[in-house]
Fold these 3 entries.
Entry 1:
Amino acid sequence: MQHLEPKCRRSRATTSLILSALVLLSASLNAAGKWRMQYFYDKDASAVGFTDIQCPSAKRCIASGILHEGKRDQGVVVVTADGGANWTLEEVKEHPLSLFFLNENKGWMVTDRGIWESFETGRTWKKIKDQKELERVYFLDEKHGFAVGAPKVVLETLDGGRNCKNQTEADKAPTAADNTVYHWIAFADPKHGIIIGSWDLPPSPREVPDWMAPERARSRHQFPSVTILLQTTGGGKTWTLTSTSLEGTLTKFLYGAPGVGFALLQFPDSSQRAAELFQMDLETNKNTSVYQDPLRPARDFAVLPDGELIVAAVEKPGKANNLPIPGKLKMMRSGSLKTWLNMDVDYRAVAGRVILAAPDSNNMWVATDTGMILKLQP
C-alpha cells in the first residue's frame, strides 16, 4: 500500500487537473455571452413577422415587418435609440421588404410598392419612388446608390433615389425576365461591388408545396436554378456579368478580408442539404465549405471586423427543408471557420426566417419572422 499511495495521489491530482480543464473549457464556451430577448410582439389575435433589421450604431436599431391581424396586414417598423432598453412600434403605409442605413440618421426602406427614405433613424418616412418588385437598395453615399429587383431590374441613382436609370448589363442575363430577380447587393469599398440574381422554373399552379409532400420532392429530378453575378471594380460605372447553374440559390454574399468573400446557399426540399456557407477566394475562385449542418440549416450570417463569423440557424422541425413551422433558434460563432461554438440563446426563441445585424464585434442583434428581437449580451 505504501507504494500505491503516490499513484493514487497522482491519479487524484490528474483527475483534479482534468476537472479544472473542463471547468475552464465550459467557461470559455459560455464566454461568448447569451442572446437575450429584447423585444417580443406577443399579443392575442395578431402577430408580427420581421423582414429585416439594421443597426447603424450600438444604440440605434430599426426592424421592419408586417403586422398580421385577422384579414389586415399592416406594415410596421420597431425602433430603439437606447440599445434595446426601449422600443417604439410605428405603422408605415406599405409593406416593408428590406432596409439600408448609411449612418445613424439616413436610411432607406424598400416596400412592396417603392422606396422610402428616413432622416430620423426610422421614426418617420417619406416616399421617394413608386415602383413594384424591388428587393433591396445599397447606397455608397447619400446620393449615389443602387436598387435591385424584378424583372431583371438593376437601377442606379445619383440623387438619393428620386431619379434612377437602368443598368443595361443586367438585361443581358441569359434567362427569361419573368422569373429572373436580382435580390442581393454588397460592396467591399466604393469601387468593388457585387449584385446577385437568380432564375428558377415557375411552380406548377396544380402542385402542392414541396413541404406538404417531402418524399415526392426528394424523388423529383432536381432542375438547377441559374445564379447571375454582376461585378464592378469601378463603383458601378461598368459591370461584368457571369451566370452559372447551381443546385441551390445563392441568397447572401458578404465581403470579408481583402480577397475573401462568404456566400450562403439555400437548397430546395429535393436536396439532401438545406443550406451551406462557403468561404470564397476571390482571386483563385476556390470555394471552401465552412458550415453545413442538416439538422441546423443556416438562415443568415454576419462577418465581424476581426474576421470571426456568426451563423444564425434554425433547428429543423421535420424532414423537409422548408417547412412553414418555426424551429428553435441556434446561434454559432467561429474564428477558425473549422470549429463552431454554440452560443446560449433564450429558450423562447423560435423562427423560420432569421436576420442578423452586427454593427461591430460588441453589438449584435437578430430579428425573427416570429416577432422577436434578440441581442448578444455578456
Note: Helices lie at 4-30, 214-219.
Entry 2:
Amino acid sequence: MTTYVYETIPQTPGTEPRRADLKQSNNGRPLTADPATGEPVRRVVLGGFGIKTSAKPAPRKAPGHSCGGGCGCH
C-alpha cells in the first residue's frame, strides 16, 4: 500500500483546497471524490528536487583572462 496525497478541488472562488493522505494500492485508480465528503479531489504529485530550465549558464572567464567568454579557451 502506498500513501498518496489528495486535495479537494474547490467549487467556489476563494475556497482553499483541503489536503489529506490516503493509503491506496499501487494498482488502484486515482480517486475522483473524497470518500468521506464526496467532494471532487485530485492526486497531488510530490517529491523531486532542483529546478529544470532551458537557460544556459553564463560563460565563466578564467582568472586573468580578458576575452568576453564563449571562445572555449577556459
Note: The mean pLDDT is 81.
Entry 3:
Amino acid sequence: MSKILIVDDDDAFRKVLCLLLTRMGHEVTEANDGRTAWSTFQAQPAQLVIMDLIMPEKEGLETIQQFRRNKAPAKILAISGGGRVDARDILRVAEQFGADKVLAKPFSSDELSLALKELLPDQPAGA
C-alpha cells in the first residue's frame, strides 16, 4: 500500500480518483489546490503526488517547483485536461519542471494503473 496525495481543484474528479485509488489498496489524502498541497504533504507525507496543473490560487507547475525545490522525496504524476491550451503542451512543461510522469485527462483506470506500476514499482497498483 502506498500513500498518495491528490491535488486537484475539481471536487468530483478528486473524489472519484480517491475512491478508485482506495479500492486499489492505497492510502489517499487530498488537497483542493496548489496552495494547500505542500502543507498537506508535510502533515501526511506521500510516496506519490498526483498533481493537476490548471488550478486557481496556485497552479500545478508552480507547486511542482515548490516540491522539487524543497527536495520532497515523492514521485509526481502530473495530470491535465489542458483547459485553454493543448494538454500535451502543458504536460511537456510539467516534465521539464520535475514531474516524473504525465497523463492527459481523461485517462482510464488501466492507464492510471500502469502509471502507478511505473512510479511505485515495489507497491501493488491494484485494479
Note: Residues 3-119 form a domain with the Rossmann fold fold (CATH 3.40.50.2300).
